[in-house]
Write a structure and sequence with these properties.
Helix content: 40-55%
Largest sheet: 7 strands, mixed
Distance between the termini: 44 Å
Structural class: alpha/beta
Number of domains: 2
Strand content: 15-25%
């Protein structure tokens, strides 16, 4: 079987083939393939003559701090012998004070020529714990490689996943191992992803006075994907005690944990952007399915629900593609998404119904906001599957050239 490499894995390989300059840190959600990427990179570099030192802290009950230095010295000795060496750390966040030891070893190696230093890559299942170590000790010593959830293009290329299955279950590569047993896959998502992130990752790093409220808030978001909901309404529908400030803080934690992204209303006035009611985007379709308990068959029979999930998939795709994403609404008039990247701004409407509003009203609303680019995703515009398989920027350019 041909080895499938995610674009981020190819980027990692390119950087590891260079002389060692900075630490390579992989960040992203649980279960999206960071450990697999390290293993693939090690396999290909070994074929190219690299020496490989792999160190997985997950294999030890309580790894001592000296464990990091021992593996580092081993890799450094191989690099000094004239053969390129890769030092790959996984689950390093499980060692208390790991970032201080890495800083010490990295700084000590700067006295050597780049060719005599091992290339170092670090990953961990808890992105929050890894990022905390980076901000505390390793400023200026690393580059990030972001591993987001899987999009339709990757799922289609690697596992031949189609549009409907992506909208229903997309985001995680293990989906292929459970096909066609959707119920079992959803149990896996609940037990191996949602519970560890909410029940462990967030609670270990941040003071959460109301952990039950945090969990209920995540469930609320999964029941309202791609919907605009005021913080006050959220508070009113949640059974646990809290206040609007607590809800806003917990939304931020869920965003940092790569579970949801609350979009703000588009406005040139930054204060209005920050104070608006958020539109909730769940960053992987499988999270919605796991919380709602919906299978792919359930979804295809309910076109209204399918439409909401499809909008969420488009919002998540825009975020994965590196866009700043907003929405806009004024009374009964709404623009589903406003995407901005490197000075380009585009208004986007998503529909799965042939009874569409049309491109003209969207252009009228966009013009009112000073936005020249518009795009309809769905009937009468760009095909939903085609949009989810490509860089949105290319579709935005094509759509406006055809006017």
């Amino acid at each position: 079987m041909k080895l499938y490499l995610r674009p981020m894995t190819r980027q990692l390989l390119e950087r590891l083939r260079e002389p060692q300059r900075l630490l390579q840190i992989l960040v992203g959600p649980r279960q999206v393939g960071k450990t697999t990427a390290i293993a693939q990179a090690a396999q290909l570099l070994r074929r190219a003559g690299f020496s490989i030192v792999s160190a997985n802290a997950d294999a030890l009950a309580s790894p001592p701090r000296a464990w990091i230095a021992e593996h580092w010295r081993k890799a450094a000795a191989l690099a000094k012998s004239g053969k390129p060496a890769l030092l790959a750390f996984d689950e390093l966040q499980k060692i208390p004070g790991w970032s201080e030891i890495v800083k010490k070893e990295f700084d000590a190696g700067q006295r050597l020529r780049p060719s005599q230093r091992p290339r170092v890559v670090i990953s961990g299942s808890s992105a929050l714990m890894v990022e905390k170590g980076l901000t505390e000790s390793l400023a200026g010593r690393f580059e990030l490689i972001r591993f987001p959830h899987w999009g339709l293009a990757e799922e289609s290329g690697a596992f031949r996943v189609g549009l409907d299955r992506h909208v229903a279950f997309g985001g995680y590569p293990r989906l292929r191992e459970f096909a066609p047993d959707g119920e079992r896959f959803l149990e896996y998502v609940r037990d191996s992803i949602i519970e560890p992130v909410i029940g462990k990752d967030i609670l270990l790093l941040h003071p959460v006075d109301k952990p039950v409220l945090l969990g209920r808030l995540f469930e609320f978001a999964c029941h309202h994907p791609a919907e605009i909901v005021s913080l006050q309404k959220m508070l009113g529908q949640l059974t646990e005690q809290g206040n609007v400030t607590t809800i806003a803080n917990y939304l931020d934690l869920l965003s940092k944990a790569f579970l949801i992204s609350p979009l703000q209303k588009y406005s040139p006035e930054i204060l209005r952007v920050r104070s608006s009611s958020p539109k909730l985007i769940v960053l992987a379709q499988a999270l919605i399915a796991a919380v709602q308990g919906r299978t792919a068959a359930d979804l295809t029979k309910d076109r209204e629900r399918y439409g909401r999930w499809a909008k969420n998939a488009v919002g998540a795709h825009l975020l994965r593609s590196g866009f700043e994403v907003f929405y806009w609404r004024d009374r009964d008039e709404e623009i589903d998404f406003i995407a901005r990247r490197r000075g380009t701004v585009c208004a986007i409407e998503v529909t799965v119904s042939a009874k569409k509003r049309g491109a003209a009203p969207l252009r009228r609303l966009a013009t009112r906001l000073g936005i020249s680019k518009t795009l309809v995703v769905g009937p009468g515009g760009v095909d939903l599957g085609d949009f989810l398989k490509t860089d949105p920027a290319s579709r935005m350019n094509d759509a406006n050239q055809k006017r």
